[in-house]
Request: fold
Amino acid sequence: DIQMTQSPSSLSASVGDRVSITCRASQSVSTYLNWYQQKPGKAPYLLIYAASGLQSGVPSRFSGSGSGTDFTLTISSLQPEDFATYYCQQSSSTPRTFGQGTKVEMK
Amino acid sequence: QVQLQESGPGLVKPSGTLSLTCAVSGAPIISSDWWTWVRQPPGKGLEWIGEIYHGGNTNYNPSLKSRVTISIDTSRSQFSLRLSSLSAADTAVYYCARGPPPRTPAGFDSWGQGTLVTVSS
Reply:
């Protein structure tokens, strides 16, 4: 199985901050890497596909980068609705594993 | 706009079997998509359970493979999950989702609302 490790596990930030979350795969996943946002009591929501593709309807303040084993999700200017938990997920091979999540909290 | 809706019992007994169904609407279940189950224990992260293609091909998480069966009924536009030999560790919110074919540059773009299944006597 490919293990996905996110860092940090949590972070505190203010509205307007630039926020970055990293995801590392235990072996190369090329660019088969997706990012999701999840709010309490809700299903995950696809933000970024194929490492850097912005899913339709997702604000442009979200961006993704990376390839191989190292990836980054960046929120350029944090908005109140962005406080949530973020997960990376690889779709290079089965099982299609998720990272453990990064909780973005209000400072 | 594809919609997915999970249904099934919210309480099951230890050593029993969980059975959930996901109804698909707004898009054909016969497509290039793979239909997926993901679960999330309370306060924890997401775990991929497995997936099925309309032709019946399946992939399962090795950690659950001995206990999991995913099936599909294209005539009813729904797919199902069975998980046997349940323990408290299987208590979770279970989601169904639409996924891309393997090694396709896409993610799980549609999800059900999730259903909480509690394993308790």
Q: What stands out?
A: The radius of gyration of chain A is 13 Å.
